[in-house]
Every structure is written in structure tokens, then in C-alpha cells.
Design brief:
Layout: H1 27-38, E1 42-43, H2 44-47, H3 53-58, E2 63-66, H4 92-103, E3 107-112, H5 123-136, E4 141-145, H6 153-161, E5 166-168, H7 178-181, H8 187-200, E6 206-212, H9 218-230, E7 235-240, H10 257-269, E8 274-277, H11 287-296
């Protein structure tokens, strides 16, 4: 049985061939980059150094990152800048909606930095962005990837009242490693948010994502899947952790494509409506495909 235990070699692990990323820019990529700059918008694709940036932008898909580009937390795996935010742009929801229209999107994904400095954690801006997209592009579905709002139910209600098509919150890693990997976030709080979302809005699918390769065991991955299903989570994404800079925690292990296939099978067997599992999978990778797949599959027991 594969353990996934941390490998202490004293030097970075060599990235395997299946993780080579093609740096391809075309007209769609350049147009999308220009659109984001002209509207003073941020994407998690750039800020978090997503490995799928070139593929997704060339296919005219992107994940909008609202509430600025400075996060109040400093997670050991994340490349987004951390510090004291100075930005709160009330016109941002309208600009995101304009970009969604101009890109011709049928499914928009909106996330944010953590804004623990705000009383509602930025929930009102999430809600305003959902409504602005719906008003400007009525046929476009909206997925939100939210922080934990420090466990404030009022903030969660604010987002759910705006009726997103998908409520996403990432568990990120297994229980044992959560405090070491994530800053301020709590494993139990993430499960609470997903479970409470299901209680407040049973018809809104919930989604969560985790990365592997940070020192977890295979058994712990399966336990996390069980915890997410117990919280009513419908959609799961599993991807390989990649160290964004030397300042971030090192990769403990690279999982093979075959192992990711096995994890997908394990997730589906547990009753997730859809499981997206692969070395380069990230939370919003092929997001629209995930939604359509989940709609066609009934929730397991």
C-alpha cells in the first residue's frame, strides 16, 4: 500500500515528466490578459501561479479573484501575497460581470483572498458579484470558492442568499497536517462550513478540493474523503501540490497519474457526484464540466 509519507532527502524532489507544463500563449491568452489589466481585475490563476494558466486562458476560462490581491493569511502552500490589505473596491462586482460578458462565459468562477480584516470576511462583495453576473449575463452559472469566514454563519448566509450555482470551500489537506499547512484555517471549521451550507441551502451543490504530496498517508486521504461526504459535499477535486517558491513548504511526494485514477475511483465509490483527480487538477479546473457531470449523477448514500 502506498503511504505518501514525507520523504526527507534534504533537497527538492525532481519533478516527474508527467508534470511538465506547456507554456503556450495564443490570441485568446493575450486578449484575456489585456482584458484583466484594462479592468483592474485579478485572477487566482496568476496570483497563485496555477500550472493550468496557459491552457485555461487559451480556452477563455479564468477564475476571478475579488477583494484585492493581498491575503490576511499566510498559508505555507500558497503563492498569493500576504499582509495587510488596503483594497475594498465596491465597483469590482460590476467590472467582473462586464468581463464575464465580454469573455462569453457560460460558467464563471469567483474566489477571493481571505479578508479577516473585514467584519463579514468579504461576503457582501461575493454576493454583489454573483448578482451582478446574473443581471449582466443571465444564462451564466456562477461558482464561488469562499474562505471560511472565520466560522461566521451570517457571512455564509449572505453568500447563499445570493444563490450561487456551486458553493466551494477547500479542505486543502488531511486533518493531521491542517494546522501546519494552512494559516488560521481549521479542518473542523471547513467541514462545518460545508455541512452548514447544505443545511441552509440543500439544493445548492457543495464542492471541496484537496492537494496531495505534503506528507499525508493514503489512508488519511480516504479519511478526508469520508469526512467530506459526511458533511454532504457533492464534488471533490484532488491535485498534486507543487512548491511555488523556495520559501514555501517542499513537496514530500509526487503521486503518479495511476494513483490519481485510483483516488477518483475511491471518491466515486464513496458517493461524490463528481471527482476531478489528476496531477495538475486545481479547484476550478474544468469547472463547467464538473457541474454538468454532477448534475447527471445522483448523490450517493
Amino acid at each position: 500500500m502506498i503511504s505518501g509519507e514525507e520523504i526527507a532527502t534534504g533537497r527538492p524532489l525532481r519533478r516527474p515528466e508527467w508534470l511538465k507544463i506547456q507554456l503556450h500563449t495564443d490570441e485568446n491568452f493575450r486578449e484575456l490578459k489585456s482584458l484583466m489589466r484594462n479592468r483592474t481585475l485579478h485572477t487566482v490563476c496568476e496570483e497563485a501561479r496555477c500550472p493550468n494558466l496557459y491552457e485555461c486562458w487559451s480556452n477563455r476560462t479564468a477564475t476571478f479573484m475579488i477583494l484585492g490581491r493581498v491575503c490576511t493569511r499566510a498559508c505555507r502552500f500558497c503563492a498569493v501575497a500576504s499582509g495587510r490589505p488596503t483594497e475594498l473596491d465596491l465597483e469590482e462586482p460590476a467590472r467582473v460581470a462586464e468581463a464575464v460578458e465580454q469573455m462569453g462565459l457560460r460558467h464563471a468562477v469567483v474566489t477571493s483572498v481571505a479578508r479577516d480584516d473585514l467584519e463579514d470576511g468579504g461576503a457582501s462583495i461575493f454576493a454583489a458579484t454573483i448578482r451582478a453576473i446574473r443581471e449582466r449575463v443571465p444564462g451564466c452559472s456562477v461558482e464561488v470558492l469562499v474562505p471560511d469566514f472565520q466560522g461566521r454563519e451570517a457571512s455564509l448566509r449572505t453568500v447563499l442568499d445570493a444563490r450561487p450555482d456551486i458553493l466551494n470551500h477547500n479542505i486543502e489537506t488531511v486533518r493531521r497536517l491542517s494546522d501546519r499547512v494552512r494559516s488560521k484555517a481549521k479542518y473542523g471549521r471547513s467541514l462545518w462550513l460545508l455541512a452548514r451550507s447544505k443545511e441552509l441551502a440543500p439544493d445548492i451543490p457543495t464542492k471541496s478540493g484537496m492537494m496531495v504530496g505534503v506528507g499525508e498517508t493514503w489512508e488519511e486521504i480516504l479519511e478526508t474523503m469520508d469526512d467530506l461526504r459526511a458533511a454532504g459535499c457533492d464534488i471533490l477535486t484532488v491535485g498534486q501540490y507543487l512548491q511555488p517558491t523556495r520559501k514555501h513548504m517542499p513537496v514530500a511526494r509526487y503521486y503518479t497519474p495511476e494513483e490519481f485514477d485510483r483516488l477518483k475511483e475511491e471518491g466515486l465509490r464513496r458517493g461524490f457526484r463528481h471527482v476531478e483527480s489528476g496531477p495538475l487538477v486545481r479547484s476550478s479546473y474544468h469547472a463547467r464540466d464538473q457541474v454538468e457531470s454532477a448534475r447527471s449523477r445522483s448523490v450517493g448514500p
